Task: inverse folding
């Protein structure tokens, strides 16, 4: 049985994960909610309005983005 994920979970993402959306493809079925795209490049982090997962961008920004 899968344990509940921490609602204050911080997930590091890189340019490879863009465009960023939640839930991620590897999320367990019980943790699924409607897909929402998140702008993690604007402030370096974004929080999902459904599950409160916090995504933090690490690494270099893709070319053409600030």
Result:
């Amino acid at each position: 049985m899968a344990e509940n994920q921490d609602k204050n979970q911080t997930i590091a993402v890189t340019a490879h994960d863009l465009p960023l959306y939640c839930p991620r493809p590897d999320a367990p079925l019980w943790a699924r909610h409607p897909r929402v795209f998140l702008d993690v490049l604007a402030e370096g982090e974004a929080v999902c309005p459904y599950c409160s997962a916090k995504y933090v961008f690490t690494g270099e920004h893709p070319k053409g983005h600030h």
About this structure: The longest strand covers residues 10-13. Confidence is low (pLDDT under 50) at residues 1-6.
